[in-house]
Design a protein that fits this description.
280 residues; mainly alpha; Serine Threonine Protein Phosphatase 5, Tetratricopeptide repeat; 2 domains; globular; disordered N terminus
């Protein structure tokens, strides 16, 4: 899910609610005839989102020193070949990851995966692009990053058709940003059929259930997640599901648990307000 360093930088409530409502599943009820037009639009958007455009935009958010460090690595990379180029690309991936810029990191990780063609590197590529599209509001960049994630996970499944991580990532991407959401749902359901406790698949099925108003299903999925790991975002989503079911006491308890685990001023303020509201 979300990295701790992201939560600290952006603010937990913003990230949690942004992720929940970015999981657009309107495609579940889209009319026929829209798909080809959307596919063409996605292709155009993908061509506009490149390593250069993403990197330059990301540098605008960095300090002069960090931007200079990345520029130096990029200059070295221009003349590098073979193992040296691969090492510089890995350094750039790490640099972008350290400063919470997954889109830029994803493009360099993609270059690595294209050379190594390993399951691990394609999964890592898909994960970078997934994090990027889940945390961006740009209407041009987001669908392009979804497509990048899909390609990466498809490459991973070609290498290992049984990879549950690849199936989960692909399923999430299909539901989040393509005209084929049911294909994604089926992939995720296949994952939990094979691995009923799979955290990523259950978490995302829970989120998608919330977006479609199936709050009891969301509760069941999130409980499965929480049986295995205690994270504030999981409790936050569970609280939201309970609240929508009208189960106020359960919602309050879950909100308070998310507050306890997050120890974040923003979520503390949000939860305190929610508890007061639900206690009336």
């Amino acid at each position: 899910m979300l990295k701790g360093k992201q939560l600290a930088v952006i603010g937990l409530v913003v990230v949690l609610m942004g992720l929940l409502f970015s999981l657009d599943i309107k495609g579940l009820v889209k009319e026929e005839g829209q798909h080809s037009g959307e596919a063409a639009e996605n292709a155009t958007q993908t061509s506009l989102v490149t390593l250069q455009t993403v990197s330059e935009a990301a540098k605008q958010t960095l300090s002069a020193n960090l931007s200079r460090q990345i520029n130096d690595l990029e200059i070295q990379l221009k003349d590098a070949k073979g193992a040296e180029a691969l090492e510089l690309q890995r350094q750039l991936v790490q640099k972008w990851d350290d400063v919470n810029q997954p889109a830029a990191g994803g493009f360099y990780q993609e270059l690595i995966a294209q050379q190594t063609n390993t399951l691990a590197d394609w999964l890592k590529t898909g994960d970078f692009f997934t994090e990027a599209y889940q945390n961006i509001q740009d209407s041009v960049a987001q669908p392009a990053l979804v497509q990048k994630a899909i390609v990466a996970y498809q490459k991973a499944t070609e290498l290992d058709p049984k990879s549950l991580d690849a199936k989960t990532g692909l399923g999430v991407a299909y539901v989040s940003g393509t005209p084929n959401p049911m294909q994604g749902i089926q992939l995720l359901l296949a994952v939990v059929k094979e691995d009923p406790k799979n955290i990523k698949a259950n978490m995302n099925l829970g989120l998608f259930s919330m977006r479609s108003g199936q709050f009891q299903k969301a509760v069941d999925r999130l409980k499965t997640v929480l049986e295995q790991e205690q994270k504030p975002e999981s409790w936050f989503y569970l609280a939201t599901a309970y609240e929508n079911l009208g189960q106020k006491q359960e919602a309050i308890a879950a909100y308070l648990k998310s507050k306890e685990l997050a120890a974040d001023p923003q979520i503390t303020q949000f939860v305190d307000h929610k508890v007061e509201e639900l206690s009336k």
